[in-house]
Write the C-alpha coordinates for this entry.
Amino acid sequence: MRFAFKTSYAQDLGLFRDGVQRNAYIALFLALLVLPRLVPEYLGDLSLVFIYGLCGVSLMVLAGYTGLVSLGHSAFLGIGAYAHVYFAQDLGVPWVVAVALAAAVTAAAGVLVGLPALRMTGVYLTIATLAFALIIQEVFTRWDRVTGGLKGKPVQKAVVFGLPLGHEVGFYLLCLAFLIGGLWLTSNLLRSPTGRAWVAIRDSEVAAQSMGVNLAGSWVSPARSLRTRSASSRPTSSACCSRSSSCSWWRSVVSAACTAPSTAPSSSRCCRS
Protein backbone atom coordinates (compact mmCIF):
# COMPACT_ATOMS: atom_id res chain seq x y z
CA MET A 1 0.00 0.00 0.00
CA ARG A 2 1.28 3.45 -0.94
CA PHE A 3 1.08 6.36 1.51
CA ALA A 4 1.48 10.00 0.46
CA PHE A 5 2.75 12.26 3.25
CA LYS A 6 2.02 15.96 3.08
CA THR A 7 4.98 18.18 3.86
CA SER A 8 3.67 21.62 2.87
CA TYR A 9 0.54 23.74 2.99
CA ALA A 10 0.34 23.61 -0.81
CA GLN A 11 -0.08 19.82 -0.65
CA ASP A 12 -2.74 20.15 2.04
CA LEU A 13 -4.64 22.65 -0.14
CA GLY A 14 -4.39 20.49 -3.26
CA LEU A 15 -7.61 19.13 -4.64
CA PHE A 16 -5.96 15.72 -5.13
CA ARG A 17 -3.80 13.76 -2.72
CA ASP A 18 -0.99 13.25 -5.23
CA GLY A 19 -0.31 12.92 -8.94
CA VAL A 20 -1.49 9.32 -9.05
CA GLN A 21 -4.91 10.23 -7.71
CA ARG A 22 -5.12 13.21 -10.09
CA ASN A 23 -4.34 11.04 -13.10
CA ALA A 24 -6.88 8.45 -11.97
CA TYR A 25 -9.64 11.07 -11.79
CA ILE A 26 -8.65 12.49 -15.17
CA ALA A 27 -8.85 9.00 -16.68
CA LEU A 28 -12.26 8.47 -15.06
CA PHE A 29 -13.51 11.80 -16.43
CA LEU A 30 -12.36 10.94 -19.95
CA ALA A 31 -14.02 7.54 -19.67
CA LEU A 32 -17.29 9.18 -18.67
CA LEU A 33 -17.06 11.48 -21.69
CA VAL A 34 -16.58 8.50 -24.01
CA LEU A 35 -19.27 6.39 -22.33
CA PRO A 36 -22.23 7.82 -24.32
CA ARG A 37 -20.71 6.38 -27.52
CA LEU A 38 -20.15 2.97 -25.96
CA VAL A 39 -23.50 2.40 -24.22
CA PRO A 40 -26.00 4.86 -25.74
CA GLU A 41 -28.96 2.73 -24.67
CA TYR A 42 -28.12 3.20 -20.96
CA LEU A 43 -27.66 6.97 -20.89
CA GLY A 44 -30.95 7.53 -19.07
CA ASP A 45 -29.93 5.13 -16.32
CA LEU A 46 -26.48 6.69 -16.06
CA SER A 47 -28.03 10.13 -15.71
CA LEU A 48 -30.08 8.84 -12.78
CA VAL A 49 -26.88 7.42 -11.28
CA PHE A 50 -25.35 10.92 -11.37
CA ILE A 51 -28.48 12.46 -9.81
CA TYR A 52 -28.60 9.96 -6.97
CA GLY A 53 -24.82 10.22 -6.65
CA LEU A 54 -25.21 13.91 -5.91
CA CYS A 55 -27.78 13.04 -3.24
CA GLY A 56 -25.37 10.45 -1.88
CA VAL A 57 -22.63 13.07 -1.55
CA SER A 58 -24.86 15.20 0.69
CA LEU A 59 -25.78 12.17 2.78
CA MET A 60 -22.09 11.23 2.99
CA VAL A 61 -21.27 14.67 4.39
CA LEU A 62 -23.97 14.33 7.05
CA ALA A 63 -23.49 10.70 8.05
CA GLY A 64 -19.81 10.18 7.21
CA TYR A 65 -18.28 13.46 8.37
CA THR A 66 -20.58 14.45 11.22
CA GLY A 67 -21.80 11.05 12.43
CA LEU A 68 -25.46 12.10 12.24
CA VAL A 69 -28.08 9.80 10.74
CA SER A 70 -30.81 11.36 8.60
CA LEU A 71 -33.77 9.63 6.98
CA GLY A 72 -35.18 12.80 5.45
CA HIS A 73 -32.98 13.26 2.39
CA SER A 74 -35.69 12.02 0.07
CA ALA A 75 -37.93 14.84 1.29
CA PHE A 76 -35.37 17.49 0.36
CA LEU A 77 -34.87 15.84 -3.03
CA GLY A 78 -38.60 16.01 -3.63
CA ILE A 79 -38.85 19.63 -2.48
CA GLY A 80 -36.14 20.67 -4.92
CA ALA A 81 -37.63 18.70 -7.79
CA TYR A 82 -41.20 19.96 -7.39
CA ALA A 83 -40.03 23.52 -6.73
CA HIS A 84 -38.01 23.51 -9.95
CA VAL A 85 -40.94 22.19 -11.99
CA TYR A 86 -43.28 24.76 -10.45
CA PHE A 87 -40.96 27.69 -11.16
CA ALA A 88 -39.99 26.55 -14.67
CA GLN A 89 -43.38 25.37 -16.00
CA ASP A 90 -46.09 27.04 -13.96
CA LEU A 91 -44.42 30.43 -13.56
CA GLY A 92 -42.38 30.38 -16.79
CA VAL A 93 -39.06 31.16 -15.10
CA PRO A 94 -35.90 30.38 -17.15
CA TRP A 95 -34.39 26.98 -16.45
CA VAL A 96 -31.21 28.21 -14.76
CA VAL A 97 -33.11 30.68 -12.57
CA ALA A 98 -35.59 27.95 -11.65
CA VAL A 99 -32.71 25.72 -10.51
CA ALA A 100 -31.33 28.51 -8.32
CA LEU A 101 -34.75 29.23 -6.82
CA ALA A 102 -35.39 25.54 -6.19
CA ALA A 103 -32.04 25.27 -4.40
CA ALA A 104 -32.95 28.30 -2.26
CA VAL A 105 -36.34 26.82 -1.35
CA THR A 106 -34.73 23.49 -0.42
CA ALA A 107 -32.08 25.26 1.67
CA ALA A 108 -34.80 27.23 3.46
CA ALA A 109 -36.64 23.99 4.22
CA GLY A 110 -33.40 22.57 5.58
CA VAL A 111 -32.99 25.56 7.89
CA LEU A 112 -36.58 25.24 9.13
CA VAL A 113 -35.98 21.58 9.96
CA GLY A 114 -32.46 22.06 11.27
CA LEU A 115 -33.14 24.81 13.79
CA PRO A 116 -35.63 22.81 15.91
CA ALA A 117 -33.46 19.70 15.62
CA LEU A 118 -30.30 21.60 16.54
CA ARG A 119 -29.91 19.98 19.94
CA MET A 120 -30.94 16.49 18.85
CA THR A 121 -28.45 13.68 18.36
CA GLY A 122 -28.54 9.96 17.78
CA VAL A 123 -31.87 8.22 17.48
CA TYR A 124 -33.83 11.39 18.29
CA LEU A 125 -32.45 13.17 15.24
CA THR A 126 -33.20 10.10 13.14
CA ILE A 127 -36.82 10.07 14.32
CA ALA A 128 -37.19 13.80 13.63
CA THR A 129 -35.90 13.48 10.06
CA LEU A 130 -38.10 10.43 9.46
CA ALA A 131 -41.15 12.36 10.66
CA PHE A 132 -40.25 15.23 8.33
CA ALA A 133 -39.97 12.83 5.37
CA LEU A 134 -43.40 11.34 6.12
CA ILE A 135 -44.97 14.80 6.44
CA ILE A 136 -43.49 15.94 3.11
CA GLN A 137 -44.71 12.74 1.47
CA GLU A 138 -48.26 13.52 2.55
CA VAL A 139 -47.91 17.09 1.29
CA PHE A 140 -46.73 15.86 -2.11
CA THR A 141 -49.60 13.40 -2.30
CA ARG A 142 -52.38 15.86 -1.46
CA TRP A 143 -51.16 19.12 -3.03
CA ASP A 144 -52.47 18.29 -6.49
CA ARG A 145 -52.25 21.81 -7.91
CA VAL A 146 -48.47 21.95 -7.47
CA THR A 147 -47.29 18.34 -7.40
CA GLY A 148 -49.95 16.55 -9.44
CA GLY A 149 -50.75 14.21 -6.58
CA LEU A 150 -50.04 10.52 -7.02
CA LYS A 151 -49.75 10.94 -10.79
CA GLY A 152 -46.80 13.27 -10.51
CA LYS A 153 -46.02 16.03 -12.96
CA PRO A 154 -44.36 15.87 -16.40
CA VAL A 155 -41.11 17.77 -16.76
CA GLN A 156 -40.14 19.78 -19.80
CA LYS A 157 -36.74 19.36 -21.45
CA ALA A 158 -33.87 21.38 -20.04
CA VAL A 159 -32.86 24.56 -21.89
CA VAL A 160 -29.70 26.19 -20.53
CA PHE A 161 -28.99 29.70 -21.85
CA GLY A 162 -30.95 28.94 -25.00
CA LEU A 163 -29.16 25.62 -25.56
CA PRO A 164 -31.65 22.72 -25.61
CA LEU A 165 -30.43 19.69 -23.65
CA GLY A 166 -33.48 17.50 -24.10
CA HIS A 167 -31.65 14.70 -25.89
CA GLU A 168 -30.11 11.94 -23.79
CA VAL A 169 -26.48 12.89 -24.39
CA GLY A 170 -27.09 16.52 -23.42
CA PHE A 171 -28.95 15.57 -20.26
CA TYR A 172 -26.21 13.05 -19.43
CA LEU A 173 -23.52 15.75 -19.67
CA LEU A 174 -25.67 18.18 -17.68
CA CYS A 175 -26.06 15.70 -14.81
CA LEU A 176 -22.33 14.93 -14.95
CA ALA A 177 -21.50 18.65 -14.71
CA PHE A 178 -23.74 19.07 -11.66
CA LEU A 179 -22.16 16.03 -10.00
CA ILE A 180 -18.62 17.31 -10.60
CA GLY A 181 -19.59 20.75 -9.29
CA GLY A 182 -21.12 19.21 -6.18
CA LEU A 183 -18.03 17.09 -5.54
CA TRP A 184 -15.76 20.12 -5.95
CA LEU A 185 -17.78 22.27 -3.53
CA THR A 186 -17.98 19.42 -1.03
CA SER A 187 -14.23 18.85 -1.17
CA ASN A 188 -13.56 22.52 -0.42
CA LEU A 189 -16.10 22.52 2.39
CA LEU A 190 -14.57 19.49 4.10
CA ARG A 191 -11.11 21.07 3.98
CA SER A 192 -12.36 24.32 5.50
CA PRO A 193 -12.49 25.03 9.26
CA THR A 194 -16.17 24.10 9.19
CA GLY A 195 -15.46 20.66 7.75
CA ARG A 196 -12.69 20.04 10.25
CA ALA A 197 -15.05 21.02 13.07
CA TRP A 198 -17.62 18.52 11.78
CA VAL A 199 -15.04 15.73 11.81
CA ALA A 200 -14.01 16.67 15.35
CA ILE A 201 -17.64 16.54 16.50
CA ARG A 202 -18.10 13.17 14.82
CA ASP A 203 -15.08 11.66 16.57
CA SER A 204 -15.92 13.01 20.03
CA GLU A 205 -18.28 15.80 20.99
CA VAL A 206 -16.66 16.17 24.39
CA ALA A 207 -13.14 16.37 22.94
CA ALA A 208 -14.29 18.80 20.24
CA GLN A 209 -15.95 21.07 22.79
CA SER A 210 -12.86 21.00 24.98
CA MET A 211 -10.81 22.14 21.96
CA GLY A 212 -13.05 25.15 21.46
CA VAL A 213 -15.53 23.87 18.86
CA ASN A 214 -18.99 25.33 19.37
CA LEU A 215 -21.25 22.30 18.85
CA ALA A 216 -24.46 24.20 18.11
CA GLY A 217 -22.68 26.99 16.27
CA SER A 218 -21.07 24.52 13.88
CA TRP A 219 -24.52 23.97 12.31
CA VAL A 220 -26.02 27.47 12.71
CA SER A 221 -23.04 29.63 11.82
CA PRO A 222 -20.39 27.61 9.96
CA ALA A 223 -18.17 30.65 9.60
CA ARG A 224 -17.60 30.56 13.37
CA SER A 225 -17.49 26.83 13.84
CA LEU A 226 -14.00 26.94 15.34
CA ARG A 227 -14.25 29.44 18.15
CA THR A 228 -11.33 30.59 20.23
CA ARG A 229 -11.27 29.62 23.89
CA SER A 230 -10.33 33.04 25.22
CA ALA A 231 -9.63 35.59 22.54
CA SER A 232 -9.47 38.41 25.05
CA SER A 233 -6.45 36.86 26.78
CA ARG A 234 -4.24 37.10 23.66
CA PRO A 235 -2.97 40.19 21.89
CA THR A 236 -4.39 40.52 18.38
CA SER A 237 -2.47 40.55 15.13
CA SER A 238 -3.96 42.78 12.44
CA ALA A 239 -2.60 40.61 9.62
CA CYS A 240 -4.09 37.44 11.03
CA CYS A 241 -7.41 39.02 11.96
CA SER A 242 -7.87 40.51 8.51
CA ARG A 243 -7.20 37.15 6.95
CA SER A 244 -9.64 35.34 9.26
CA SER A 245 -12.47 37.80 8.67
CA SER A 246 -12.04 37.68 4.91
CA CYS A 247 -12.32 33.91 4.81
CA SER A 248 -16.06 33.55 5.09
CA TRP A 249 -17.77 30.18 5.04
CA TRP A 250 -18.97 30.57 1.44
CA ARG A 251 -15.52 31.67 0.27
CA SER A 252 -13.99 28.62 1.92
CA VAL A 253 -16.42 26.45 -0.04
CA VAL A 254 -15.78 27.92 -3.48
CA SER A 255 -12.06 28.42 -2.98
CA ALA A 256 -9.44 26.38 -1.19
CA ALA A 257 -7.46 29.53 -0.38
CA CYS A 258 -9.17 29.90 3.00
CA THR A 259 -8.43 26.37 4.19
CA ALA A 260 -4.74 26.94 4.73
CA PRO A 261 -3.43 27.56 8.22
CA SER A 262 -2.59 31.18 8.82
CA THR A 263 0.97 32.23 8.03
CA ALA A 264 0.75 35.00 10.62
CA PRO A 265 2.70 34.85 13.91
CA SER A 266 2.30 31.96 16.31
CA SER A 267 -0.96 31.22 18.09
CA SER A 268 0.10 33.11 21.17
CA ARG A 269 0.13 36.35 19.14
CA CYS A 270 -2.63 35.62 16.64
CA CYS A 271 -6.34 36.31 16.73
CA ARG A 272 -8.31 33.35 15.37
CA SER A 273 -11.86 34.39 16.21
Summary: The longest strand covers residues 159-160. The radius of gyration is 22 Å. Strands lie at 159-160, 163-164.
